[in-house]
């Protein structure tokens, strides 16, 4: 993500209400969320909140959502976008630890992931580094406006990546400064597509 674009995003989302989801019990399916830069809470409200709510509405007690917050090692700082991996090493290691924590807490649960903006860069680095027993429980994931579009070791049918044609943060050929597109995923139908995609993974797993 370009730092200038990240600053614009920060201004746009800083006034949004806090969004936090935590897994308290052990549902059959857990979505781990890495929010976008400067989003509040541990899931944020631009994508994380609506996506978690959509899956919770469909699966009820069989679904849980867990964000990776500042206390977990991911502060969602704007400046981390300019680092070589598009985020900080601590952000990545904190996310890896969260996957391990959820697997230890709920070893029978299916795991999924969502990364938005800088959170997408985190997932692109974190997923390949998961311990084998944890990675074997990952049934799918989604990225939104991600500053990294690929995940080593995963095929295109294992995760979906949504990047608007006018979103200059994830699309290098988009018009510069079109940050509005970067905030539009919960309004343009892509969150609903992501709910359907992850639902297909949950249903295929039989939980």
- Count of separate structural domains: 1
The percentage of residues in β strands lies in 5-15%
Average pLDDT, rounded to a whole number, is 89
Please identify the structural class as seen in this structure. Answer: alpha/beta
Outline the low-pLDDT stretches: 1-18
CATH fold assignment: Rossmann fold
SSE succession: HEHEHEHHEEHH
CATH class: Alpha Beta
Compute the number of strand runs.
5
Rg, Cα atoms, Å: 15 Å
* Head-to-tail CA distance between termini: 36 Å
CATH superfamily: Alpha/Beta hydrolase fold, catalytic domain
CATH architectural label: 3-Layer(aba) Sandwich
Assign an overall shape. Answer: globular
Helical content, roughly? 25-40%
Question: How can the largest sheet be summarized?
Answer: 5 strands, parallel
In spatial order, strands of the major sheet run 2-1-3-4-5
Number of helices: 7
Subcellular location: Secreted
Organism: Microthyrium microscopicum
Catalytic activity: cutin + H2O = cutin monomers
InterPro entries: AB_hydrolase_fold (IPR029058), Cutinase/axe (IPR000675), Cutinase_monf (IPR011150)
């Amino acid at each position: 993500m370009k730092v200038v674009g990240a600053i614009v995003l920060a201004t746009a989302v800083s006034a949004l209400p806090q969004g936090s989801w935590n897994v308290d019990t052990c549902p059959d399916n857990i979505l781990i969320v890495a929010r976008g830069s400067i989003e509040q809470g541990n899931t944020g409200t631009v994508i994380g909140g609506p996506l978690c709510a959509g899956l919770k509405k469909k699966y009820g007690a069989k679904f849980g959502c867990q964000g990776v917050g500042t206390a977990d090692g991911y502060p969602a700082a704007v400046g981390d976008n300019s680092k070589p991996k598009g985020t900080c090493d601590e952000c990545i290691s904190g996310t890896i630890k969260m996957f391990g924590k959820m697997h230890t807490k709920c070893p029978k649960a299916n795991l999924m992931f969502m990364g938005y903006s800088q959170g997408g860069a985190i997932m692109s680095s974190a997923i390949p580094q998961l311990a084998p027993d944890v990675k074997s429980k990952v049934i799918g994931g989604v990225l939104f406006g991600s500053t990294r579009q690929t995940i080593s070791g995963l095929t295109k049918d294992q995760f979906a990546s949504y990047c608007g044609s006018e979103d200059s943060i994830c699309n290098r050929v988009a018009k510069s400064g079109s940050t509005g597109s970067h905030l539009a995923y919960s309004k343009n139908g892509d969150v609903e597509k992501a709910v359907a995609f992850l639902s297909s993974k949950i249903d295929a797993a039989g939980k």
